[in-house]
Amino acid sequence: MRTWLTNLFDDLRSGFWFLPSLVIGAAVVVALSMLWLDARMAERVALPAVLTSSAPAARTILSALAGALLTGTSVVFSITMLVLAQTASQYGSRLLRTVADGNVAQVTFGLFLGTSVYCLLVLRTVGQDGGDDFVPHLSVTVGVLGGLVSLFALIYFLHDTASSIQARTVVRSVHADLADAVDRLFPEPLGEADDADREPAADEAPPAEAVRLRDVGLGYLQAVDGESLLTATVERDLVVHLLVAPGAFVTPHTEVAAVVGDGEIDDETLALLRRCFLLGDRRTPRQDVVCAVDELVEVAVRALSPGVNDPFTAITCIDYLGAGLARLATRAAPDHRRLDESGTVRVVAKRVAFPEVLEAAVEPLVRHATGSPSVLQRVAETLAVVAASTDHAEYTTAVHEQADWLVDLSRRHLDDARAVERVESALESITKPS
User: Can you say how many angstroms the Cα of residue 308 is from the centroid of all Cα atoms in its chain?
Assistant: First the structure.
């Protein structure tokens, strides 16, 4: 259930309607509360002159604020759509997630709409409660303060927008997602867990008689509800082998799991298990560390395209990729077995290991950078940094294989002998594992 709620929250906050709707709802509550307070204080408390105004002045202020804020809303909306269009064309549509997940535009949009709704609700009460001279002074004052807050929000929104479309900001945002995914999915540092005891259980194949689970839907597997899945396996006395990892594209015919049980596995049990697989129309880094890697690679590959030819942006992506890979190289592979309280293995997940993540980061970059010696050199330097971050035999072997492949590809595609020498020099510190 917690995984489902987290996934739902990720979907909600990536939409432009959720936060503005909350702010508008809060504005309605504040308006009703302030009007109630004004009605109770009208004859009991004498307010300072600075907080009072006549009915005509209050109507003018509130109507002017409501109109101006509605106009400002259209400006915020237009700028946001322009930023989304530019992000999609320059960095790829998958990178829209980094812009949509940002709260600045949503909060600004909500403040403008919420304050406008607040002013309209207060405006209709001026002169109606207690005679023509009734003015909800505190409510009008709060409306003016809301207008000032909205103005400062617009200024910050313009600053954030100007910063968010820059390549370094987009790349740093994706790297933050990558670092969070590494910390969440690979929490244990090397040396605190024995990976040798884990790999056989994680890699063992399900028995041939296992029932194959299909028909979970169409889309990208965003998350697996591990808690619900473990509970279901304990209640039904099952062992579930996951055949796909989060990030995989699933069709109704895809075998997502193999289910093993002592008795007959009925349709009700399969339906219960299907609900543990959460699908969507896009990949997210919540349980998919390769998602953030692919997004950084996509920005770099687009920068290396002949139409753009921006190797400096590609190098920035490589630098942040290297930081993420070096972080991952210090972490132990997590145990992909889920055990119940008695120690019985109930769930065996599909293993996503460091070599696979490294390959996803390096190979697409190198294949698109064969005509850019500076980018290949930076890839070589990054591999050296990653190799220096770990002494794990499996990780070191993976880095060495990528280094050998990079040298071979550089010799075949680079005409400049000096550029090849620089690539080889950058990789000299990577020693071949014994």
Answer: 26
Number of neighbours of residue 331 by Cβ within 10 angstroms = 21
> Could you tell me if residue 243 is inside a domain?
no
Assess contact for 350 and 397: CB atoms under 8 A: no
Q: Within 10 Å of residue 280's Cβ, how many Cβ atoms?
A: 15
Q: Which of 147, 165, 183 corresponds to the end of one domain?
A: 165
Asked if residue 360 is part of any domain, the answer here is yes
Q: How many domains does the chain have?
A: 2
pTM above 0.90, yes or no: no
Q: Are both 157 and 297 inside the same structural domain? A: no
- Of 116, 148, 165, the one marking the end of a domain is 165
Quote the CA–CA distance of 224 and 238 in Å, as a whole number: 17
The reported pLDDT for the residue numbered 8 is 67
Q: What is the pLDDT of residues 174-198, one digit of tens each?
A: 899 899 999 988 888 876 544 444 4
Q: Residue 96 pLDDT more than 90?
A: no
Range of the domain at 50: 2-165
3-state secondary structure 215-280: CCCCEEEEEECHHHHHHHHHHHCEEEEECCCCCCEECCCCCCEEEEECCCCCHHHHHHHHCCEEEE
Q: Which residue has the tokens 């699908």?
A: 279
- Strand order in 219-224's β-sheet? 249-250, 219-224, 277-280
